[in-house]
Every structure is written in structure tokens, then in C-alpha cells.
Amino acid sequence: MRWRIGNVTVTKIVELEMTGGSRFLLPQATREAILPIGWLIPHFADESGRLKMSIHALIVETPERRIVVDTCLGNDKRGRRIPHWNERTGPFLADLEAAGYPRERIDTVLCTHLHVDHVGWNTMLVEGRWVPTFPNARYLMGRTEFEHWRQAREREDMVTVLKDSVFPIFDRGLVDLVESDCRISPEVSLVPTPGHTPGHVSVRIASAGEEALITGDFMHHPCQIARPQWSSEADSDKEAARTTRGRMLEALSKAPTLVIGTHFAGPSAGRIRREPSVGRDGEAFRLAMPD
Fold first, then answer.
1. 230: which of 70, 104, 105, 218 lies 20 to 30 Å off by Cα?
2. What is the full DSSP assignment across 19-47?
3. Is the C-alpha dihedral spanning 192, 195, 199, 203 positive or negative?
4. E strand or H helix at 86
5. pLDDT tens digits for 77-103?
6. What CATH number corresponds to the domain at position 101?
7. Domain that holds residue 10
């Protein structure tokens, strides 16, 4: 799937798409709570109310840059909390190349945050060692995000993720720590969206009078557009995450911005529209599909 924003293209490379099994992440999103939100079906939930979610990377190609936003789970990784995320052998790199982006052509990798499903392909296993997957790229990470997780020794799962997917590139001098409002290129800049993690960012694209926003995880699923009060169990600060989500949805509802969800399945993108009134579904906003 590919979108055009002025002179920029954004291409989605799916690593894993799944239906159901999301209750651990969004426990309030029961089937009974999802079914009344009719616009979620069929793209974002099935007819029984089970959520559909995706883990994918987004390739942002500007006139001068080829940027990978978030690098999914990766192959051969161990110590992941979710069993089928361990020791994967998926075709992600082949899919990336088939889309026109062999790993050697990527010049920038941008991590919205450092959770397991956003940094996995930062590295690949070669002869028993973790080496940079994108050998010609600079890896951009938020300074606040990096410093927070580097000191968070109580999270054993994050210690493992940093060890195999972050420190191997940091130790090679390939990481640039950036501020949460950094401009990456004339068309691409970061937007602070804290709450899911302390240094979480989203990615704004602006070109030739058009705009898009790559969400990262300030919302995991479109149901949180309809129910902004639903926070993820993975949020570091649920109240801050709710505040960020409300602020962003309000702003996006007033702008013609294409919103590209980092975990949104199927079409993955649309525009935020405020409902004309709070109806029986109770939603404040919805995701309208592009024409």
C-alpha cells in the first residue's frame, strides 16, 4: 500500500497482521463494546467484534531521503513476551526489496519509540552477531526516549530489546539522538506525543500543500478514535496518553491531514472527522477513508 503526500511517498511494508488476541493491549475493547462502532467493520474489526491489527514499517521517500519509520519485530529475536514474536523467520527484507527499497538504499531509520515491535529490524543476526540491518543509514532516536530506557533496568523485557536491537547500532556510532520536535528534512519533522512512552513521537509529513501524520503508538487501533478514553495496557502513563490522544484528535479533526496508523490494519489511513453529535455509539471522532 502506498500514499502520495505532495512530493513524498509513504509505502507500507507489513510484517504481521492478525485478528483477535488484542484484549491484553486494549482490555476495554470487548466484542460487545466494539460492535456498536459500526465504521470499524470490516477493515479494523471483524463481524464478531474482534480487533484487526498490523505490525508494519512505513517507508517515507522524499526527493532526497529514504526513511524507514519503525522497524517492526525482526527475525531471530528471543526473549519476547509474546510467543509468536520469538525467533521469527519472516520475509520482511524480501518484501522491502520487492517494494523498491533494498536495505542498502535506506539512508535513515526513525524510531517513534523503543518498544519491541518498533526496533526489531534495526539489527539482523549474522554469524551469531547482531549487525545493522541498514548499513548505510543513520538511526534517529529521541533523546528522552533513549535515556529513559537505558536507565530502566527493572524492565527485563526492555533490557533484552535494547541489548539485541538498539545497543549494537549505538555502540557502532550509528545512532543520532534527537529532540522530540526535530526536523528531519524539509518535508519531515517530529511531533511530541508523550504518554505511551516518555519520549514518544509521531511523524509529520508536509509537502506541496498536503500533510500526513504517522501516529506511532499514541493510538494503537482506530477504536481509540471513537473512544479516546481507552488507554493501552502498554502505555507508560495512561493519563498522559489520554491527554495526548485527545489533543491530537481535536487538532487533526480541524485539518485535512492524512492519518497513517502505525498499527492500523487494512487501509491503515484516513482523516479524522468529528461526529456531528454524540449518537448511540457515543463516539466523538471517526476515521474517514480517503476517496
1. 70
2. ES--TTT-TT--HHHHTT-GGGTTTTB-T
3. negative
4. none
5. 999 988 889 999 999 999 999 999 999
6. 3.60.15.10
7. 2-288
